[in-house]
Specification:
The protein has helices at 11-27, 35-47, 58-63, 81-88. It is mainly alpha-helical. The chain starts with 10 loop residues before the first helix and ends with a helix.
């Protein structure tokens, strides 16, 4: 537990915040004002990455199974032609 207005007393939370901040910087390097759009992706990446302390992902720790993967896009699988063209480019 950390005290109010003294985040340095909670080192584990600070490490997680720094990691999420690094993810966001990588995602929005040229458009920093859009960081909130990428927050769910940063969270997903954090929760599906193996952590050294446990050797597991946070998802595995909570749910007891590996996290679901995001399937790769296969050209021609979209029912919307414009969407298919955009994803193929």
């Amino acid at each position: 537990m950390s005290s109010s207005y003294h985040p340095q007393t909670d080192g584990q939370t600070e490490v997680m915040n720094r990691t999420i901040e690094q993810y966001l910087r990588a995602f929005v390097h040229d458009k920093p004002n859009l960081w909130s759009r990428y927050l769910p992706w940063a969270e997903y990446h954090y929760n599906t990455s193996v952590h050294a302390a446990s050797g597991l992902t946070p998802f595995q720790v909570i749910y007891g199974k590996p996290p679901p993967s995001i399937p790769s896009y296969i050209s021609g699988t979209s029912n919307i032609e414009a969407c298919d063209a955009l994803l193929s480019s």
